[in-house]
Amino acid sequence: MEAGTLGPGQERTMGERFAHALNRFSEAPYVVKAGIGIFLLDLVLVLADRRPDSVGEWVLLLAIFAATVAAMVPLERRPAATAAVVLANVVAILILYHGLHEVSQRGINGLSLGAIYALGAVGLTLVYGILKLVNFAHGDFLTFGAYMAYLVNVTWELPLVFGLAFAVLTTALLGIGLEKVMWGPMRGRGAGMLQLLLMAIGLAFVIRYGIQFVWGTELRQLNVNRTDTVNFLDLRVGRTQLIVIIVGFVTLIATGLMLRMTLLGKRMRALSDDLDLAETSGIDTSRVILYTWLFAAGLAGLAGVFAGAITQLQPELGFELLLPIFAAVVLGGIGNAFGALTAGIVLGVVIEWSTLIVAPGLKLAVGFVILIIVLIIRPEGIFGHARTV
Amino acid sequence: MTDPLAIFPLGLTFEAFTDIDFWTSVGIFAGIYTIFALGLQLNVGFTGIQNFGQAGFMAIGAYSMAILTAEEGMNFWLSLPISILITIAFGLIVGLPSLRLRADYFAIATIAFAEAIRLIALNARDLTNGAQGIFGFDDSWDSISESIEDFIIDLGWTDVPGLFPLFLVTWGIAVLMMFSLTRVQGTPWGRVLRAVREDEDAARALGKNAFSYKLQSLAIAASIGAVAGWLLAIQLAFVVPDEFQPIVTFIGYVVLVLGGLANYWGVAVGAIILWTVLEGLRFLELPISETKIAALRFIIVGLVLIGLMAFRPQGVFGKREEMVLGD
């Protein structure tokens, strides 16, 4: 058996060389790393968009680059602040190329999407953090909520408000019911991560194709106003979208306050931090878990209705939202509800901004690339603690 | 609904099950998914890495073969090894940064990679022709297929289904792969993979570079996925982004756990069971529409997956002592 360590000059495998190069890079001074990172980012933006076409633009571009690196240096080890600076850098370059109006218009379009991501991500991250369940069925909770609202709003011809309430209620009940019959018993048997994950994929199939069984694959619409727009400061936003943004943000703020202020919220966060420790300190964990499901599934139902209201209903509605929601969960740090909330909104806006540069069909791919890059640089997420990975 | 028997599946026509065209089609799908899931078996069952991007590797294999042949005019046989190399390169690009991550992060990163590939294939119209897809890469295959058919006719079987040669080739490749992967598993290399699966730190303490072994495992699985991609492309005679949805990887996992973890031959059994059930359900004469029957098939798949994970997580033919899901 060969020795465990490598002597000098001994042959290295490719993986070791890569690891070595990576270590050398991570030992470089922070300003060098930040400079290279921002340079690469700006280079991508410039190559994807266009070269600056006047001396003035070149000067402004260089100024933005220099200001970003300068702003990043004092923020070492503060990932959230660093991310904000990186974001400001991107915004500045986009404004330089496309003007303030265009950037704000796309940003507003992104807010409704961001609210949906954030509402989905808060529940998903709590379930993930507390139960160690990578819930691939969470997207289908959104679809379920949307179709429940459709049932009330279109089939029974009642106002959408009732549909919304019914959707939140039924999806929350679905979450609790599944905890009772599936997840609770499985945890009791000590099921592993992949086992639960595959079970969630099975559940996702059952919900998604159950919906397809009942309602078919055709596109359906909720009974909402799709034509009226609201204008302010030269910006246009659809009335339904504006309602989604307002109700979404009010719900998100209420959620944040609930998690921060109430005893239940504190207990949820305690469970998400360390379930065993929370249990030892006398918290009735199974009760808190039920409330978490109530809360996670209810918010998912709400997000689903919103998604249905601004787009159209089809059985894959929620599954198509699932991966960006996962991206928000990872960016925010798994188990961190505030992180998921912020990351969801930011992701929605950034994805919409990316349509200034790439084809609209690629905007989700941009989201996934951001996810992969963050996973590589900082897998514990922008708002996460280093120990979670 | 006056007749209560009308909702009961009595109208099952058994002629379908003696129809050679039906079995050829089921067999090709089962064979393609066997090959697809062999890559997953190598990763999940023998190395303990949860690769959820297999559909992405399949897409890269299929697309690079189709683009090189139909658009660049390359010889079909030459395009095959080159598409394998391209897929391996992608496997390394994905694996190098992401194999350092915890298992669940790796799962999310790989599924995000696969979706990014599909979205790029859908939007990079100059390269991939977008949603229309690529045609006309299979002339060389057609001539091979015809000579196999002629050979069978010479043997005395006259009404050979058109897809039968593909069926033979698919299963030939699948059996060859199962045989060689099983052999490889007994070599020192294969034993290190299992050591990495059982206890990465222990393997590292023995001087094994666990990361490098995981990377090799992922690259090999990616190239196996590319082979499944060629066969799928040939079977359909076109390559479109829709064929590489994440659901393909999920069905691969169903095949995997149905057949059992850490067992290459079980994968084939899992694929045959799954596709016989899926395609057999088409012949149920239920008084409901096509969409409802299609939905019913996947509801059953979901229930099977939930049931297996709840009651037999090692799969039908898996060994409990080699179960890799319980940690």
Descriptive account of the structure:
The complex is a heterodimer of chains A (389) and B (327). Chain A has 389 residues and is mostly helical. Chain A has 14 helices and 2 strands. In chain A, strands 1-2 form a two-stranded antiparallel sheet. In chain A, helix 2 packs across helix 4, helix 9 packs across helix 11 and helix 12 packs parallel to helix 14. The N terminus of chain A is likely disordered. Chain B is globular, with a radius of gyration of 21 Å. Chain B has a single domain, classed as ABC transporter involved in vitamin B12 uptake, BtuC. The longest helix of chain B is centred in the last third of the chain and has 27 residues. Chain B is mainly alpha-helical and 327 residues long. The interface between A and B is large, with 56 and 55 residues.
